[in-house]
Amino acid sequence: MAFDVKEKTVLVTGANRGIGKAIVEEALQRGATKVYAAVRRLDSASPLVAEHGDRVVPVRLDLSDPATITAAAQAASDVDVVVNNAGVLKTTKATDADAIESLQYEIDINVYGLIRVAQAFAPVLKDNGGGALVQLNSVVSVKTFPDVTTYCASKAASYAVTQGLRDLLKEQGTLVVSVHPGPIQTDMGVEAGFEDIADSPDVVATAIFDAIAEDRFHVWPDVFARQVGAAYQSFAENVVEADMQENMD
To answer: Where is the Ketoreductase domain (predicted)?
Structure first.
């Protein structure tokens, strides 16, 4: 299911800044014909349009609003690659008074949002030959840090959903990719207190399209993430990526 993004159509959620913006630019650099910049406010994509012209097409999409996701899937009916990059983070410990509220907010965007995107776009990808669905998870999908416990929980859940999508969408020829960055130079990274050790968003964008070209599920794009990925590799290969159902039959 590996393929080159050249002459393909890509949609990126949260495309207006940070990792999302880097993904848009990497797709265009690799020869994508068109990139849908899926954002909550259409005007936030104006700088991308000003720089790249009609190769960037803004489309409204809010992960908390299912109607906008359905409408975006209808508007982007020619899409080959969907990158669900948008997400939210609260710096909340499990013992904080607002821990449940923070987790509810993060689950709505980071988990339910992924499910909404998959439900809306999986049929589109199938109609267009399979393509790829890319989910931005995190190293905190597999390792919890106490100061961002609720965020870690939401990303662990989104990783679980991504695993399920990998097996489900394989039947329709869709490659599913789970991306697990460590600290990255974004507004979210600053909010989490990682700006001093963060890597460039460009490394994430490059790793995503390399994984699509190489038919890989797990992506550990930066220095910190690769350390986690190396330790996790055996479990990933022998359990997560293995056909456990076949072994149970």
So the answer is: 8-187
Is 248 inside a domain boundary?
A: no
pTM score, two decimals?
Answer: 0.93
Q: What is the CATH number for 109?
A: 3.40.50.720
Structural domain contains residue 204: yes
**∠ CA(145), CA(157), CA(196), 5° rounding?**
35
N-to-C CA span, the chain: 26
Of 63, 54, 44, which Cα lies nearest the Cα of 9? 54
φ, ψ (nearest 5 deg) of residue 217: -85, -55
How does pLDDT run across 222-238, given as a tens digit for each residue?
A: 999 999 999 999 999 99
Residue 74 has pLDDT above 90, yes or no: yes
Quote the domain boundaries for residue 164: 9-239
What's the rounded mean pLDDT across residues 62-67? 98
The span from the CA of 244 to the CA of 249, in Å, is 9
CA distance 156 to 142: 6
3-state secondary structure of 161: helix
